[in-house]
Amino acid sequence: MIMNANNLNHKHFICLNGEMLPAGEPSLMHTNRAFCYGDALFETMHANGTKLQFFPAHYSRLEKGMQKLKMEKNGLPDAGNLEALIVKLLNKNHLYKGVRVRLSVFRNTGGFYTPRNNLVSYLAETLPLPDDKYRLNEKGFKTAVFKELSKQADKLANLKTANSLLYISAGMFCKEAGIDDCFILNTEGRLIESVSSNLFLMKEGILLTPALDEGCVAGIMREQIIRIAAKEGLECRQSRISEEDLLSADECFLTNAIAGIRWVVAYRHKRYYSKTARMLVASLNREQFP
Predict the structure, then answer these.
(1) The domain that contains 188 carries what CATH number?
(2) 186 and 99 in a common domain
(3) DSSP character for 114?
(4) In terms of Cα–Cα distance, which of 55, 54, 63, 67 is closest to 226?
(5) Domain that holds residue 224
């Protein structure tokens, strides 16, 4: 959350606790608990025009995360007022097409590992996207399994917290290996997600995705794809996913709130189709952008 004034347009704004501030000027102290301790949650949301896709689901997940971390909701506006503030920020930044919105909620400064209190602040920022709608990647992703670190399936595993060192390490592994994404394992050695996405497989006509108790992030797009798949008549099972499942699947794709769906073409010697991913992204777009 350190901002470099030299790299930002001073006409661009952020929203800090309801106040619109120039993005190129310092706005957070070095004592900020998100910076010092990773004591924060965040939501990344897709916007088109001034409509936020799946905002109620994002707000609900944020509330549940705050409750788990014992953060008080007093400093956070209710869902309607917060959505209105983000729409105001989009208008102020003249962003009327595809936009990535990041909303961070962090415990207020004070204390060391033990917080002085549980009051929170929030910060919303925006970034234009190349596409207005969800667009399936033309070239499928090449993937591998990241084995240097694994993820514990504890009560924090489903949250989107500011502690992202596991995902950063996995992202660096992808960069060094020259691949597009990689699969993250839980401590039992099963596949649960990728660097920034949830995982889906199509196997023998059934859609499979890791169960939440396996340790994956409770992704908003994951939730929507499960719902849309049911609407399209697909059976979806939340289960345990092994490398053997990955190697025997017909299709593999990844989901997140910003990109929608990204299909995987290769894992090791295995090659995948993209039929189900194409059908689901078309259904997603018809629903969200009629």
Answers:
(1) 3.20.10.10
(2) no
(3) S
(4) 54
(5) 141-288
Tokens of 202: 């199509």
Q: What is the pLDDT of residue 7?
A: 40
Residues 277 and 188 in one domain: yes
Residue 258 resides in a domain: yes
Sign of the CA dihedral with 199 first, then 202, 207, and 213 last: negative
The Cα–Cα gap between 271 and 287 comes to 30
Q: Quick one: 152 and 113 in the same domain?
A: no
- Per residue in 69-116, pLDDT (tens digit) is 999 999 899 999 999 999 999 999 999 999 999 999 999 999 999 999
Residues 192 and 82 in one domain: no
Pair 94, 33 in one domain: yes
Which residue's structure tokens are 């194409």? 278
**Among 80, 226, 223, 197, which Cα is nearest to 137's?**
197
Tokens representing residue 206 in the block:
């059934």
3-class secondary structure, 42: strand
The C-alpha atoms of residue 255 and residue 205 are separated, in whole angstroms, by 19
Number of domains observed in the structure of the chain: 2
Give per-residue pLDDT as tens, 208-251. 999 999 999 999 999 999 999 999 999 999 999 999 999 999 99
What are the tens digits of pLDDT across the range 144-179? 999 999 999 999 999 999 999 999 999 999 999 999
Domain end position, chosen among 128, 158, 174: 128
Torsion, Cα 57 58 59 63, to 10 degrees, reads 100
For residue 203 the two structure tokens come to 């196997």
Residue that has been written with the tokens 């008549």 in this structure: 233
Q: Which two tokens stand for residue 122?
A: 């929030």
The verdict on residue 236 lying in a domain is yes
